[in-house]
Design a protein that fits this description.
heterodimer, A: four-stranded mixed β-sheet, 11 helices, globular, B: 393 residues, four-stranded antiparallel β-sheet, 8 strands
């Protein structure tokens, strides 16, 4: 892993220990209905654990000190997210502390930052990004309409899936103020409290027991001060926010892939078949060696991308897509092999392999799929 | 060795930069034939190369970390890294880099006696003696320990008989480090490590023509070759341990991929054309090119990451995984390059094939060796599985 300073090493060790103690995979299991889907009444996260995470300062890692954060950088936040990914810990940390905080840092006015960031930093407020409107990530296809009304705006349309949408207090909503779906011009971001009149939320029952939401906007009124960035010019800003979101997801996926590999490797070292430990079979040894190599590529891509945010590297967009696509492919492969190499037991709900498989597919789709990011990397690199 | 203070690094960087700028002959920029283990005759005939080699020899910077009595400059690893970086910055190259510096030298430093070190290391440090590696045998490819070349103790000398194969540059080498069998009862435990003068009577090196048309490898025949007793490195039958260490040095050097490679996108645009959106006009080939290029980028990031993490500098077992990733990515790239060129990427000689096309054909064929030499793909996976991942058996 990256060469860390003393504070980062302490943060990582602390996160590693806390996640194992407080949010092991069994905690996620508690959010599941039998076999799959979210348990009825569940919010898809543990509010008490979230309060503890906030207490440890994790929600404010990238928030400026003036607004109650630690301004400790994206690599540091990535270390924590990676540890959460190891046990599939369910929390809105990426949605709020990374994505929403990034949006406000990138484009928020002083007033907007002062109003929202302290709550995000202390965990009392959960933010999220409401960008996609269908099963595939496609920001330029945004159709949700924002029309000028009085000295503000009126939003109408739908968003889905909104990550952590049922527990979010603040949604950063992409809307179309001009043009047609497909245009990069004409997109505008708004800061929308989720208790706004006319906003209806519906929990989506997803394979990984998390609870993203479907948002229905029926003439939701937005004050002019709640516009984030410039009117009609949000496409680049959306890219910048989504890049940070994708890198955060990639960090979580790196953690999940690493843990899924470790669990599988342990199994290969203990399971006996045909009178031998199955890890002594060359076919399985070679598969393990190849997965280990893929993990190396993934760690490098993710850590390089995290460091690129902190360094304000102009290559960040391409590095973000490299990280998300690489992590997507690796976690897909390792989570499938986790089931395969465990055999029948890996197919049972009782075993953790299925939980890694399910979260892997959700994470792959989130903030741009592997295919989407490959295509973007291709365009950025002239292919 | 102790790390230098940061202030020393910057001073040394300036010093290195100035010296290299003043001493590297600009005429040697982009002369591929003289790079690592290039043509010995061409090198001898090139006055700039000889001047450059002599200057680096005198400075000891070809092997900066070796002690001055062995021809080095007695510097730390950190100094050596800075020299390498500054050399790369002026598109220069180390004229001393060879199998001698990368493989035999570090091995002799660990296992050789003082007389052997003084006898050989200064000549490696000046690149006056070229070395080849007599490990592989016709009947023992990746199963290196199955080697049969006989070595009999004749009292006042050793007598060596047998055949080696895949010996890189044996026809141009002055010396060879050879694994020989001194005990036929034991497999790994019956092997010894011997230094053999290629001028000895009874040695014959025959180049092997490969599928790529090159003659880089040789077969080497040993017909009752007399070798002095003092040329044994380490103890009798300790050769396997020494060889394993040497192979670690080799794997480490193979993983040193310094330069990035040219993106294939512009070439693909030329050969395949572009669609209305400016994309390579073959969705399938484009997708495969992109995936390969992304893996290559992630691989380069991995080399940088592992270098930054490698505080101890010693060979690590993770290198086997790295070697397999590299061979896979580069082999696939060579295939893709030929595919971009279509039928023009399959010419062998003459018209209408361009020089770059013929080179691509041969590079593709040559790339098949990447997952065979230095320990095959399968052997590297065995090493990763057992040493890095701790799998049994």
């Amino acid at each position: 892993m990256a060469v860390l300073n003393e504070e980062q090493t302490m943060l990582k060790d602390m996160a590693s220990q806390w996640v194992r103690d407080r949010l092991p995979v069994t905690a996620l299991r508690g959010l599941y209905d039998h076999g799959g889907g979210g348990r009825s009444g569940s919010d898809g996260y543990d509010a008490d654990a979230w309060a503890e995470m906030a207490q440890m300062g994790w929600c404010g890692i990238i928030v400026p000190e003036a607004y109650g954060g630690a301004d400790f950088g994206y690599l540091s936040l990535g270390l924590v997210i990676e540890e959460l990914g190891r046990t599939l810990a369910a929390s809105p940390l990426i949605s709020s502390a990374l994505v929403a905080a990034s949006a406000l840092r990138l484009a928020g006015t002083q007033d907007q930052q002062a109003r929202w960031l302290p709550g995000i930093a202390d965990g009392s407020l959960i933010g999220t990004l409401a960008l996609d409107e269908g099963p595939h990530h496609a920001p330029e296809r945004t159709a949700l309409a924002a029309t000028a009304s009085g000295d503000g705006w009126t939003l109408s349309g739908t968003k889905r899936p909104v990550q952590d949408g049922m527990i979010a207090n603040l949604a950063i909503v992409a809307a179309r103020t001009s043009g047609a779906p497909g245009d990069r011009d004409g997109l505008t971001l708004f800061l929308v409290p989720t208790d706004s009149a006319g906003l209806e939320r519906q929990a989506l029952d997803q394979v990984d027991a998390r609870r993203p939401a479907l948002y229905r906007f029926d003439s939701v009124n937005i004050a002019v001060n709640d516009m984030l960035g410039e009117v009609g010019k949000a496409a680049d800003l959306i890219d910048a926010i989504r890049d940070r979101a994708a890198i955060g997801m990639a960090a979580e996926m790196l953690g999940s892939a690493t843990q899924a590999f470790d669990i599988t490797l342990d199994y290969l070292k203990t399971r006996v078949q045909f009178g031998a430990i199955i890890g002594s079979f060359q076919a399985l040894q070679h598969r393990a060696a190849e997965l280990f190599g893929e993990l190396q590529l993934t760690r490098s891509a993710v850590e390089t991308a995290l460091a690129a945010i902190d360094a304000d590297d102009p290559a960040l967009p391409a590095l973000a897509s490299l990280a998300k696509a690489t992590a997507g492919e690796t976690l897909h492969r390792i989570s499938s092999q986790m089931v395969q190499l465990h055999g029948g037991i890996g197919m049972t709900h009782e075993h953790d392999a299925g939980l890694y498989l399910k979260r892997a597919r959700v994470a792959e789709q989130c903030h741009g799929s592997t295919a989407w990011h490959r295509e973007r990397w291709a365009r950025l690199n002239g292919y | 060795m102790a790390e230098m203070e940061p202030i020393d690094r910057e001073e040394f960087r300036q010093e290195a930069r100035a010296w290299l700028k003043a001493n590297f002959p600009p005429a040697l920029t982009n002369v591929p034939g003289l790079l690592f283990q290039g043509d010995a005759h061409a090198a001898a005939a090139n006055a700039d190369y000889q001047l450059w080699r002599q200057r680096m020899t005198d400075k000891g910077w070809g092997v900066p970390t070796w002690a001055p009595r062995y021809g080095g400059a007695g510097l730390t690893e950190a100094h050596g890294k800075i020299i390498g970086e500054e050399l790369a910055a002026i598109c220069g190259f180390n004229p001393i880099r060879s199998y001698g510096t990368m493989m035999l030298g570090p091995t002799l430093l660990e296992y050789g006696d003082e007389a052997q070190k003084l006898e050989h290391l200064p000549f490696i440090a000046s690149h006056e003696r070229r070395w080849c590696q007599g490990f592989s045998e016709p009947g023992a490819g990746s199963d290196l320990a199955a080697l049969q070349t006989k070595c009999i103790d004749m009292g006042d000398h050793w007598l060596v008989s047998g055949q080696k194969i895949w010996t890189s540059g044996a026809d141009q080498a002055d010396w060879c480090f050879v694994l020989v069998r001194t005990d036929t009862e034991r497999k790994q435990g019956g092997i010894s490590f011997l230094l053999v003068d290629m001028q000895s009577e009874g040695i014959e090196a025959r180049p092997i023509v490969l599928i790529s048309g090159s003659t880089h490898f040789c077969e080497v025949f040993f017909n009752d070759v007399k070798v002095p007793k003092g040329n044994l490195v380490g103890e009798v039958n300790q050769g396997w341990t020494i060889a394993k260490r040497l192979l670690q040095f080799e794997r480490n050097s193979l993983s040193e991929v310094k330069a990035d490679i040219t993106p294939l996108a512009p070439l693909a645009h030329d050969y395949l054309g572009t669609d209305a959106l400016g994309r390579i006009d073959s969705p399938d080939l484009r997708a495969r090119l992109v995936r390969n290029a992304m893996r290559h980028e992630a691989y380069m990031a991995t080399v940088r990451r592992l270098a930054a993490e490698g505080k101890n500098g010693g060979p690590s077992h993770g290198v086997s995984a790295l070697k397999n990733l590299w061979s896979g990515i580069i082999q696939e790239r060579a295939e893709l390059l030929v595919e971009i060129m279509g039928a023009d990427g399959l010419g062998w000689a003459g018209d209408p094939y361009g020089a770059a096309e013929k080179e691509a054909t041969r590079a593709w064929l040559h790339s098949k060796a990447f997952s065979i030499y230095g320990g095959s793909y399968e052997v590297q996976n065995n090493i990763t599985a057992k040493r890095t991942l701790g799998l049994p058996g």
